[in-house]
Design the sequence.
């Protein structure tokens, strides 16, 4: 089992505050080439439509000296997880969880914006101080 991100429990609490049921911690995907562990799996019932929405969330702190390097790693991991989810749990939507300061300071930049658009990266922006989700970026 890999180490949990610094903000793992923060994002978990933020999701629960919004009514998400944490179903997996971590969400394990077994492939013939190995085992993948996405940080969280969660479900939420939308009563008005009687739909059950299922998501997977990969939490990233972006605490290293190079945000660009962290971004390369996070994007590669996100894309690999999305491919595996498509095969193992195709109904589940994958989100990359990033702290709000990192979102404003790095994800508004050209490289991040172009990559997010090109690869259709869905973001969950969270406020680690208040343990809340600030924004869902689809």
Sequence:
């Amino acid at each position: 089992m890999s180490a949990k991100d610094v903000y793992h429990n923060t994002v978990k609490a933020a999701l629960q505050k919004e009514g998400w049921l944490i179903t997996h911690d971590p969400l394990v995907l077994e492939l013939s080439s190995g085992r993948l562990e996405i940080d969280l799996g969660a479900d939420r019932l939308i009563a008005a439509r009687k739909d059950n929405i299922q998501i997977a969330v990969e939490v990233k702190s972006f605490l290293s000296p190079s945000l660009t390097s962290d971004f390369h790693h996070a994007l590669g991991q996100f894309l690999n997880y999305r491919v595996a989810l498509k095969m193992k749990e195709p109904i589940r939507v994958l989100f990359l969880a990033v702290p709000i300061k990192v979102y404003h300071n790095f994800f508004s930049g050209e490289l991040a914006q172009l990559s997010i658009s090109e690869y259709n990266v869905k973001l969950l922006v969270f406020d680690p101080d208040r343990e809340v989700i600030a924004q869902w970026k689809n």
Observations:
- The CA atoms of residues 11 and 131 lie 7 Å apart.
